[in-house]
Each structure stands twice: as structure tokens, then as C-alpha cells.
Amino acid sequence: MGEERALIRYDWTLEEIEAIYTSPLPELILDVTRVPELNRLDLDGERPFLGAAVTFRRLETDPAVARLYPLLARAASMVGSVQVRQTGTIGGNAANSSPAADGVSAKSGDGD
Ligand SMILES: Cc1cc2nc3c(=O)[nH]c(=O)nc-3n(C[C@H](O)[C@H](O)[C@H](O)COP(=O)(O)OP(=O)(O)OC[C@H]3O[C@@H](n4cnc5c(N)ncnc54)[C@H](O)[C@@H]3O)c2cc1C
């Protein structure tokens, strides 16, 4: 898989982005969204934990997120549409490395 991996940078040119999205799919795609630890959302504890596979929909609707990290809950509710939020994860949002990623800036703004 080494040849097919890509590190996303903040300074991609449009040509570079187009090259990624028009390149053939890799032979192997690994879905990590059902790994239990990546779905863990525990913000009440002494050490708050937000798993990378937690979806925006979950962040938007979880009462503890609304209470403890209101900016994150609000930003999550503004991402795309319900369909996008239902599958889009905070980890995927961060790994995309988009400077406009709502999840990353909101997470930082809430003090993380
Ligand atoms: C119609 C539409 C509207 C959108 N609107 C917004 C918006 O308003 N605001 C916004 O911020 N974003 C928006 N997005 C982007 C979307 O929210 C993010 O792309 C989404 O959060 C990605 O999550 P995902 O789990 O689907 O990641 P994927 O698309 O599956 O993966 C994205 C990248 O992250 C990597 N990745 C995924 N999970 C992990 C992990 N656990 N560990 C390491 N790497 C990982 C993947 O390998 C891939 O390179 C929109 C997208 C669409 C299609």
C-alpha cells in the first residue's frame, strides 16, 4: 500500500488535489469505524476521550457534548447535511487536513 498513501498538506494546489481525486482507488480500503475504542465518547471523566470514529451526528446530539463542549456540538450540527453528519467522523475530518474543517477548529476552540 506504500505507493498509494498520501499525506495531505495545507498548501495543496488545485492540480494536486485533482490528481488525488482522479487517481484510481487503492486495492484495499480498510473501514475502521467499528473499532470500539475509536467510537468511545467519554467527556465526563477525569480524562475526556473523543474517539476518532465518532460521527458529527453523535457530537451534535450527545447531551454531554452540548453541556461540556457547546462550541463543538454547534459546529458539528453545521457540517454538511444530516446524511453527511451521519457518516462523517471527527477523525476523518481531521485527517482530511482541510483548513476549513469545522470539527478541528471547534475542538481547538473548546480548549482541546
Ligand atoms: C457533501 C459534503 C459536505 C461537507 N460539508 C462539510 C462541512 O460543512 N464542514 C466540514 O468540516 N466538512 C465537511 N465535509 C467534509 C466531511 O465532513 C469530512 O470529510 C468528514 O468528516 C470525513 O469523515 P469520514 O469519516 O467520512 O472520513 P473519510 O472521508 O472516510 O476519510 C477522510 C480521510 O481521513 C482518513 N481517516 C478517516 N478516519 C481516520 C482515522 N480514524 N484515523 C486516521 N485517518 C482517518 C481517511 O483515510 C481519508 O484519508 C463535507 C463533505 C461532504 C461530502
How would you describe the overall organization of this protein?
- By secondary structure, the chain is mainly α.
- The chain has a domain at 32-109: Uridine Diphospho-n-acetylenolpyruvylglucosamine Reductase, domain 3 (2-Layer Sandwich), CATH 3.30.465.
- The protein is 45% helix and 4% strand.
- It is built from seven helices and two strands, in the order αββαααααα.
- The chain has helices at 14-22, 56-61, 63-68, 70-77, 82-87, 90-96, 102-109, and strands at 41-42, 49-50.
- Strands 1-2 form a two-stranded antiparallel sheet.
- A hairpin with a 6-residue loop joins strand 1 and strand 2 (49-50).
- Helix 4 (70-77) packs antiparallel against helix 7.
- Bound molecules: flavin-adenine dinucleotide.
- Flavin-adenine dinucleotide (FAD) binds at residues 32, 38, 52-53, 79-80, 84, 87-89, 91-93, 95-96, 101-103.
